[in-house]
Amino acid sequence: MNRSIAEKISQRIIPMIRPGATVAVLGLSYKPFSHVTEESQGVYIARHLSKSGLRVVAFDPMSNEMALEEIRRNIVVLDSIEECLNQAEAVLITTPDPVFKALSEDDFRNEWAEVLVFDFWRLLSDKLSGISHIKYVGIGKSSDDEANTARLKQLWWANLAKLRERRSNE
Length: 170
Fold this sequence. Notes:
The chain is α/β, with parallel strands linked by helices. It has six helices and six strands, in the order αβαββαβαβαβα. The chain has helices at residues 2-13, 41-51, 81-87, 98-101, 125-128, 145-169, and strands at residues 22-26, 55-59, 76-77, 90-93, 115-119, 134-138. It has a six-stranded parallel beta sheet, with helices on both faces. α5 links the parallel β5 (115-119) and β6. The protein starts with a helix and ends with a helix. The model has no long low-confidence stretch (mean pLDDT 85).
């Protein structure tokens, strides 16, 4: 299940990234303050992005304590968050680590006109939304509230109608 989620997310964001671009993945561990990378969404997503032809750089505050030999085949693991961000046209924040929450809009300045930031935990929504040189995407948050509200109403009312029908037939 974890692997299929990473694949679906990767398929959703790859079309938004320029082919051949460098993507920074912030967070390789399973969770903050951990050196465990098994079943890590960040690792799975980084692999999918790399296989799709994107250059992937990564940083995790615990990377010095991680077993990264297998990961390093396709992903460049860097020693600092600054190195990652300076190279990236797109950034994925995959764990809610306090180091990532402390980032500001100035950390995302580079030579490109706009940096894509995919924030899986919406840690930086207040800091980065509406900033001219950043396209902020809060993953797991609706991008079309009106359409999604209509879908939910349809589901709820359809289920309510079915329930009423069952009760009237009993």
